[in-house]
Design a protein that fits this description.
- The protein has 210 residues and is α/β, with parallel strands linked by helices.
- The chain folds into 2 domains: 126 residues, HAD superfamily/HAD-like (Rossmann fold); 65 residues, Putative phosphatase, domain 2 (DNA polymerase, domain 1), CATH 1.10.150.
- The protein contains 12 helices and 5 strands.
- A 5-stranded parallel β-sheet has the order 3-2-1-4-5, with helices on both faces.
- Strand 4, helix 11 and strand 5 form a beta-alpha-beta unit.
- Helix 1 packs antiparallel against helix 5.
C-alpha cells in the first residue's frame, strides 16, 4: 500500500506516471525512417550520451537533429521530430482530476527527465485536451531536466528540488515508473514509490495500490 503518513509534499514524474508514453512507438518510428539500431542507443532504463546531453540542455535540439542526420543523411528534420515525439501519447482526465484533489492537501511538484522537443510537444497535447497548460494551476513548480541542467537519478537533481522549495525528504513522496530513479530518491531518504508497468496513480490514492 502507498504510505502517506507524514507526507506533505508529492513529487511526480511525468511520462509513464501522468502522461501516457510508449517507448516502442518511437523506436519503431525511427526504424521506419532508417535508424535500425535505435533500441541499442535509447530505452527507458538506459540511453546513450547524446540523449543524456539533450536532457540536460548540453545539446540543443538542432544538434540532436544533426546527430540523427549523421546516421541517416537523407532524414528530414520534421521526420526526426515526429519519430522522437511518437512516444508521447495522451493525458487521461482521471489523472488530472486526481491531481486537482491532491493539490487541496499536498504541495505538488513535477520532476521529469525530458528535453525541449518533447516539452513543446506534450504542452500541445495538454493544451489540446484541456484548453490550457493545466499543469500551471496544479503544480507549485515544474522541473524539467533540460531547463535545470540536472537529471534523475542523480542526487543533485533531487536535492535541487528539495532545497529550492524548503522540503524535508522525510515529508516528501516521489513517484516514478523507472526503478533507477526511485532508488536514487531513496538514497536521499525521500519516500519513493515505483510505479510498475500497468499500474495507475489513480489506484494508488484510492486504496488499491499493490
Amino acid at each position: 500500500m502507498l504510505e502517506l503518513n507524514g507526507v506533505k509534499n508529492i513529487i511526480f514524474d511525468l511520462g509513464g506516471v501522468i502522461l501516457n508514453i510508449d517507448y516502442d512507438q518511437t523506436a519503431n518510428a525511427f526504424k521506419k525512417i532508417g535508424i535500425n539500431n535505435f533500441d541499442d542507443i535509447y530505452s527507458q532504463a538506459k540511453q546513450g550520451q547524446v540523449f543524456d546531453k539533450l536532457e540536460t540542455g548540453e545539446l540543443t535540439p538542432d544538434e540532436f537533429r544533426e546527430y540523427m542526420k549523421e546516421i541517416v543523411p537523407s532524414l528530414q528534420l520534421s521526420a526526426i521530430d515526429k519519430a522522437w515525439n511518437a512516444m508521447l501519447l495522451d493525458l487521461p482526465a482521471q489523472r488530472i482530476n486526481l491531481l486537482k484533489e491532491l493539490k487541496k492537501k499536498y504541495r505538488l511538484f513535477l520532476l521529469s527527465n525530458t528535453n525541449e522537443i518533447h516539452i513543446k510537444c506534450f504542452r500541445k497535447i495538454i493544451e489540446a485536451s484541456y484548453g490550457e497548460n493545466i499543469f500551471d494551476s496544479i503544480f507549485e513548480h515544474q522541473y524539467y531536466s533540460s531547463d535545470i541542467g540536472l537529471r534523475k537519478p542523480n542526487a543533485d537533481c533531487f536535492q535541487y528540488v528539495l532545497e529550492k522549495n524548503g522540503l524535508e525528504a522525510s515529508e516528501t513522496l516521489f513517484i516514478d515508473d523507472s526503478i533507477q530513479h526511485v532508488e536514487g530518491a531513496r538514497k536521499l531518504k525521500i519516500n519513493a514509490y515505483y510505479l510498475i508497468p500497468g499500474e495507475d496513480i489513480t489506484a494508488l490514492f484510492l486504496g488499491k495500490a499493490r
